[in-house]
Amino acid sequence: MGSAGLIRPCEGRTNLNGRPISGASVGARTRGKRGALALLLAALLLAVTACGGGGDSDSGSGSGDGKGKGSATADTKASQAVVTIAPKDGTGDVKTSGALKVTAAKGKLTEVTVEDTKGNPVDGEITDGGATWTPSTHLSSATKYKVHAVAKDSAGREAAEESAFTTLTPKNTFVGIYTPEDGSKVGVGMPFSINFTRGITKPDDVEKAIKIKTEPAVDVEGHWFGNDRLDFRPEQYWKAGTKVTVTLNLDGVEGRPGVYGKQSKTVKFTIGRSQVTTVDAKTHKMVVKRDGKVLKTIPITTGKPGYDTWNGQMVITERLPVTRMNGETVGYGGEYDIKDVPHAQRLTQSGTFIHGNYWGGGAFGNYNASHGCIGVRDVRGGYDRKVPAAWFYDNSIIGDVVIVKNSKDKTVAPDNGLNGWNMSWSEWTA
């Protein structure tokens, strides 16, 4: 049917001049509008067809199944690497040494982090070409740890594993009683000495848990005296002004079967000025040197025949303004009992002191009259600060060195007091 047949002429209708309205004119205007609408619909249809991309063409557009030539395919295969953490997640009562280990099969470890619930990390090392991670130190006791490990296979795909476990709570423990005290200033001969409350049968593990850092840097080595004492010192006396930091990481160390350390502490001390005093038992004098220069020469008396003073290098370990000295405490029976010995400074554990002496008469500088101690002239009560014993006491500190020579006795034992300086460096480090 033609467009003219769709709309008939408006019969009987006229315009303002009384002339009939032509049906042909109305139909022409209507056809014009419909033509424009058809063009618009055609354009819209063309746009939809172009955007749809559903038809085959030479443009290379893909088909509706998403497998066209131009699509990028993602590698969704799982990593072949297998990470294993021991102990397993949720394990309790774990040993503090030897139990923690991370391994990778069919891949290489790239990341391992271990930390306690406070965020303190555990250092370790990836070895065997990425196959193994082990901690470089022991774990603390009664502590929960979290482990996160990542490995990559040959294609670079990652596999990860996590575990959380808790270490054992020991029934038997030990601590180290140490000297010098934290924050102290000591002389150049002062070692860092630790006496353990239980005999140690795993000395290497215990010594490894003690770190010493110095400023300026100097090599410091440890030496065991028996199984319950460990001393640290450098090869030569400390340099004046050296700052020493000791880290005691003993918590969790198995010192002997079933006995664990429970100590975690940092100790800092500073080396003061250098003071070394040399006592000559033959000339009955001692020379006090401060930073290499003679500070004072003082008349003294040492042990009489049969009670000779030890030779060797000794360190002041205790200072007492006044003390009682009784011969019974050192195996000399009732030979003496002096209740008010002034200005006493200990040199050996066996009872050797350098101290004030108010009863020696003319012995000072002339002959040896003591039971093995080094006597310096003093007054009873120690009130006079000008006498030699008071002066020496006031100018000494813990850790100062006193060297005795030309006595008829042998050299003091290295473990009799803090007197390891009487060992050569090769003996000390053996």
From TrEMBL:
<feature type="domain" description="L,D-TPase catalytic">
    <location>
        <begin position="275"/>
        <end position="405"/>
    </location>
</feature>
<feature type="region of interest" description="Disordered">
    <location>
        <begin position="55"/>
        <end position="79"/>
    </location>
</feature>
<keyword id="KW-0573">Peptidoglycan synthesis</keyword>
<dbReference type="InterPro" id="IPR005490">
    <property type="entry name" value="LD_TPept_cat_dom"/>
</dbReference>
<dbReference type="Pfam" id="PF03734">
    <property type="entry name" value="YkuD"/>
</dbReference>
<feature type="active site" description="Proton donor/acceptor">
    <location>
        <position position="355"/>
    </location>
</feature>
<comment type="pathway">
    <text>Cell wall biogenesis; peptidoglycan biosynthesis.</text>
</comment>
<dbReference type="InterPro" id="IPR038063">
    <property type="entry name" value="Transpep_catalytic_dom"/>
</dbReference>
<feature type="region of interest" description="Disordered">
    <location>
        <begin position="1"/>
        <end position="28"/>
    </location>
</feature>
<keyword id="KW-0133">Cell shape</keyword>
<dbReference type="InterPro" id="IPR050979">
    <property type="entry name" value="LD-transpeptidase"/>
</dbReference>
<dbReference type="Pfam" id="PF17964">
    <property type="entry name" value="Big_10"/>
</dbReference>
<feature type="compositionally biased region" description="Gly residues">
    <location>
        <begin position="55"/>
        <end position="65"/>
    </location>
</feature>
<keyword id="KW-0808">Transferase</keyword>
<feature type="active site" description="Nucleophile">
    <location>
        <position position="373"/>
    </location>
</feature>
<keyword id="KW-0012">Acyltransferase</keyword>
<keyword id="KW-0961">Cell wall biogenesis/degradation</keyword>
<dbReference type="InterPro" id="IPR041280">
    <property type="entry name" value="Big_10"/>
</dbReference>
<protein>
    <recommendedName>
        <fullName>L,D-TPase catalytic domain-containing protein</fullName>
    </recommendedName>
</protein>
